């Protein structure tokens, strides 16, 4: 990598970190390119050189966040998911940004809506694979991995919201470990 391209990559990384912070503080709709540019010591025109639109910056932020959480070869296992939850507990600004964008993306016309729609389809399929690798074709409850996958994703994301709102009362990693224990339990007699 040349010195110039290294500087460009470094500047883009700075902009993405600043965008994460601004979105975490204000949400996507409240975040402005001017605020992100100011945070990294650029003019808005200088920022537009790297990201020509606010939507382009948003897509880059989301893609970068997913890169941080990627496991080479997509080799997720339940124990690695627990480690991811612990890792997320150490980076509240990223979790807050993701959660703010996720919440806003459910509104019609939001630029992150397509990203999250596609991402959740991929994540559900990936979680079904994780559950199948751990439990086979049926979990102890009798559910198939495909039926349980949306629940696993919902617990992970729901814990993030609860933790962000009450970090002193919700221990996200511990709660996720409790969920994994619950997931692996045999159904109670008389249950469905």
From TrEMBL:
Transmembrane segments: none annotated. This is TetR family transcriptional regulator. One of its GO terms (molecular function) is DNA-binding transcription factor activity. Residues 9-69 form the HTH tetR-type domain. The keyword Kinase does not apply. Residues 32-51 bind DNA. It comes from the Bacteria.
């Amino acid at each position: 990598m040349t010195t110039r391209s290294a500087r460009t990559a470094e500047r883009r990384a700075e902009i993405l970190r600043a965008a994460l912070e601004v979105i975490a503080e204000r949400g996507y709709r409240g975040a402005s390119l001017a605020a992100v540019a100011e945070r990294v010591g650029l003019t808005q025109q200088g920022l537009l050189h790297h990201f020509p639109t606010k939507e382009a910056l948003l897509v880059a932020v989301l893609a970068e966040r997913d890169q941080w959480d990627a496991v080479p070869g997509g080799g997720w296992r339940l124990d690695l998911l627990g480690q991811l939850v612990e890792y997320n507990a150490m980076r509240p600004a990223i979790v807050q940004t993701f959660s703010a964008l996720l919440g806003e993306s459910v509104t019609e016309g939001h630029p992150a809506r397509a990203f999250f729609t596609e991402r959740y389809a991929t994540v559900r399929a990936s979680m079904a694979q994780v559950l199948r690798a751990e439990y086979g074709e049926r979990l102890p409850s009798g559910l198939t991995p495909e039926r349980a996958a949306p629940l696993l994703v919902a617990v992970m994301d729901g814990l993030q919201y609860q933790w962000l709102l009450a970090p002193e009362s919700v221990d996200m990693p511990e709660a996720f470990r409790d969920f994994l224990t619950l997931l692996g339990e045999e159904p109670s007699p008389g249950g469905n």
